[in-house]
């Protein structure tokens, strides 16, 4: 897309080097603070590499064997070896295995039974055995079970009703009924409704207006009114706008420029705001945001599943074509 020609460029090679280096620096501050959520870090880093066309730079067998060691007898996955299972890390494990086309290493029945077991009577989901409830967990469970072709293991109607009960007068969604609208929660609720074919519950114009109001002067997006912009909302806001078909309501060129301004051009990586320290989380969401914006040279990403479109197609279309042949 030529419109992005004069905005500076994505330092793709530097970002690849940065992601590969994070994994090697076991004693770095970033490694230590991420130790308990390494499974999420693996998903962010590896999906970024795939979007950049560089997934072949990693040792697949090594990563797959580490993922399997993070699984518990319950079927759920921990954030690292020896850490408690949680639906958050379980989805990341499934997503990483999907990237590598290795879902067949899983006992799918066991994993899906763990996730389905976290649904409560009102349709909501707990994150783990301790029972915290949040619409994030509704999305995570629905996304995970859908990728495993096991949505029939939960009460989808109740799950949708619970999410709809978290809808606010401004068109947005909160983490529970009555919770403040927040772009991250909106993504979770819109994504879950998209996957379950229930987007008709959303007032698309009202929500689209709330979301496009998140763009600030610099071109970046914030998560709530009066907050600073942050690269991660390039994903949360943009993917939601795409799913409800209102992405043309924001200035895409200014958002591209904002994301590119948050790059560390010397050492790679992307930060939340220009000149801040980079991390894997914002590197992923920056690249994923650029992918949604159809930035040249990046693979397309699916706004609901947060995986490259070719991976999602392999899971949902590939299986059918195998059955037909």
Nutshell version of this structure?
With 325 residues, the chain is mainly α. It has helices at 12-24, 29-33, 38-51, 60-69, 87-99, 108-116, 135-147, 156-165, 183-195, 204-212, 233-243, 252-261, 280-292, 309-324.
Structural features:
transferase; single chain; zinc; mainly alpha; disordered N terminus; Terpenoid_cyclase/PrenylTrfase; 325 residues; globular; Glycosyltransferase; 0% strand
Shape: globular
Q: Unreliable runs, pLDDT <50, ≥5 residues?
A: 1-6
Strand content: under 5%
Q: Given the structure, what is the number of helices?
A: 14
Major sheet characteristics: none
The overall pLDDT average reads: 93
- How far is it from the N-terminal to the C-terminal residue, by CA? 37 Å
Q: Helix and strand succession? A: HHHHHHHHHHHHHH
User: What oligomeric state is this?
Assistant: single chain
Can you tell me the number of structural domains?
1
Fraction of helical residues: 40-55%
What is the CA-atom radius of gyration, in angstroms? 19 Å
Q: Do you know the CATH architecture?
A: Alpha/alpha barrel
Structural class: mainly alpha
CATH T-level fold name: Glycosyltransferase
CATH first level: which class? Mainly Alpha
Number of strands: 0
Function: Catalyzes the transfer of a geranylgeranyl moiety from geranylgeranyl diphosphate to both cysteines of proteins with the C-terminal sequence -XXCC, -XCXC and -CCXX.
Catalytic activity: geranylgeranyl diphosphate + L-cysteinyl-[protein] = S-geranylgeranyl-L-cysteinyl-[protein] + diphosphate
Domain Prenyltransferase alpha-alpha toroid: 10-306
Family: Belongs to the protein prenyltransferase subunit beta family.
């Amino acid at each position: 897309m030529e419109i992005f020609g004069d905005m500076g460029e994505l330092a793709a090679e530097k970002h690849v080097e940065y992601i590969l280096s994070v994994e090697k620096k076991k004693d770095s501050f970033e490694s230590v603070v991420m130790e308990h959520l390494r499974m999420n870090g693996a998903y962010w880093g590896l999906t970024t590499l795939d979007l950049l066309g560089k997934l072949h730079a990693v040792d697949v067998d090594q990563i797959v064997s580490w993922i399997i060691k993070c699984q518990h007898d319950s079927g759920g996955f921990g954030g690292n070896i020896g850490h408690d299972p949680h639906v958050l890390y379980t989805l990341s494990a499934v997503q990483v295995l999907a990237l590598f086309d290795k879902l067949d290493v899983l006992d799918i029945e066991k994993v899906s039974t763990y996730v389905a077991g976290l649904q409560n009577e009102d349709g909501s989901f707990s994150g783990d055995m301790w029972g915290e409830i949040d619409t994030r967990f509704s999305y995570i469970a629905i996304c995970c079970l859908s990728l495993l072709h096991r949505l029939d293991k939960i009460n989808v109607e109740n799950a949708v009703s619970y999410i709809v009960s978290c809808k606010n007068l401004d068109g947005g969604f909160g983490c529970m009924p009555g919770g403040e609208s927040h772009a991250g929660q909106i993504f979770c609720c819109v994504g879950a409704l998209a996957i379950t074919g229930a987007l008709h519950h959303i007032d698309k114009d009202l929500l689209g207006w709330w979301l496009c109001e998140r763009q600030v002067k610099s071109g970046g997006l914030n998560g709530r009114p009066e907050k600073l912009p942050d690269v991660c909302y390039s994903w949360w806001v943009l993917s939601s706008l795409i799913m409800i078909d209102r992405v043309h309501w924001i200035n895409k060129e200014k958002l591209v420029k904002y994301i590119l301004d948050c790059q560390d051009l010397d050492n790679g990586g992307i930060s939340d705001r220009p000149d801040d320290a980079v991390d894997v989380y914002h590197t992923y969401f920056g690249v994923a945001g650029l992918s949604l914006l159809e930035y040249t040279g990046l693979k397309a990403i699916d706004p609901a599943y947060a995986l490259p479109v070719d991976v999602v197609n392999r899971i949902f279309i590939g299986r059918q074509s195998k059955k037909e042949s």
